[in-house]
C-alpha cells in the first residue's frame, strides 16, 4: 500500500512519545525493534556516488525479515532536484522496502506472515472485519475499575462470530479504525456513544479526537523541455515506452518499472520561508490561548502534547514541512465518521503557502531552470499569496 520508503521516526519525536506517558517508547528503546525488522542490503559504489550516500550505513539491522535497499535506477532528476537546495540538510535518500536480488517488493505479509504460514499457532482470516471487542467477566470491571479485553466479535461472509483470546488482544486497526472499534466497544466520549445506544464502559474523552494528519498539497507541476536529458516515470504513459520497459523488467528486472522514489525533503519552516519567525510568533500566541482555554474535559495528554508541539514549532532543527504527491483511491466498508481537523489552525495554511512558494522557486535555479519548459500547475495566473490561498486554486 505505501510508497516503499523506509524512514525512521526522529529521536526527538520518539522521546516525546515517552515523555507523554509511554515508558519504554523512547528512541533508544524503539530503535532496536526497528533494527530487528531490517535486512539491509548495502548499495553499490555507483549508487553511493549517484545518490550522494554515506559510504557506510552501520545503523541499519541486517538479519530481519524486511529487505531494504537503495533503488539503483536514477532518472537523473533526483540529483538535479537536490542541487538547487544547496545544502543537504533535510534532503536525503531513504532505502526502499524491496529485495534487490529478486527485485521483489517486500511487505509485512511477505516478511512476517508468508514464511510462517505453516505454524500451528498462526491463523489468518482475510476479509474478516472486527465489529467490536468483547470483555472478560461479562463486561464487568475488576476491583480497580479496569476492564480486560477477552476477544473480538467479527463479521465474516455476512455472519457474526466471536473469537476468544487465550492471552491478550492487540488492537492495530490503524489511525481511523482503531478508535472506531474502541468506540463501538464502549470506550470513548459519552456524548458520542449515548446517541448511538452504545453502553459506555469507559468514559475516555481522548478516543477518536486529536486526529492530526499531514496535508497533501498538490504544489507545483513543471513540464520539462522535450530534449532534456531526463527520463521521468511519466514516460510509462506512452504504450511503446511501457512495452519496452516491461520487456526490460521481465528479462533483466531493470529500467523504469523497477524504480522506487527514495528522495525526501523534511524541512523546518525557518529553512523554506524568510517569514518563518514572524509567522511562528503570530501563531504561538493563538495556540497558547487555545491550550489555556481547554476545560477539564479535555484529555490531559492532549494538553501535554500541544505544549510539546509548541516547543517543536520554534525549533529550527525539526521539520515542519514535507511534500507528498499521492493520487490514490481507497475503499473500505463501514467508514468511521471523521473530522480531519483540516486547517483548524491558521498556521497550517500559512505553512502550506510558504512551502508552495519554496517549491516553485526551484524553477528559477540551475540546473532545473534550463530544462523546465513551463509550469503546468497552477500556472502564472496564481502568483500572490491571496491567489495561492484562494478558492480558485485547488491547493489541497
Ligand atoms: C498512500 C500512502 C503511502 C504511504 N507511504 C509510506 C511510505 O512510503 N513509508 C512509510 O513509512 N509510510 C508510508 N505511509 C504511511 C504508512 O503506510 C502508515 O503509517 C502505516 O501503514 C500505519 O500502520 P498501522 O499498522 O498503524 O495501520 P494500517 O497499516 O492502516 O493497518 C491497519 C490494518 O487494520 C485493518 N483493519 C481496519 N479495520 C479493521 C477491522 N474492523 N477488522 C479487521 N481489520 C481491520 C486494515 O485493513 C489494515 O490492514 C503511507 C500511507 C499511505 C496512505
From TrEMBL:
Residues 174-188 form the Glucose-methanol-choline oxidoreductase N-terminal domain. One of its GO terms (molecular function) is flavin adenine dinucleotide binding. Belongs to the GMC oxidoreductase family. Coiled coil: none annotated. The keyword Endoplasmic reticulum does not apply. Keywords: FAD, Flavoprotein, Oxidoreductase, Signal. It comes from the Eukaryota. It comes from Clathrus columnatus. InterPro entries: FAD/NAD-bd_sf, Glucose_Oxidase_domain_2, GMC_OxRdtase, GMC_OxRdtase_N. Its cofactor is FAD. This is Glucose-methanol-choline oxidoreductase N-terminal domain-containing protein.
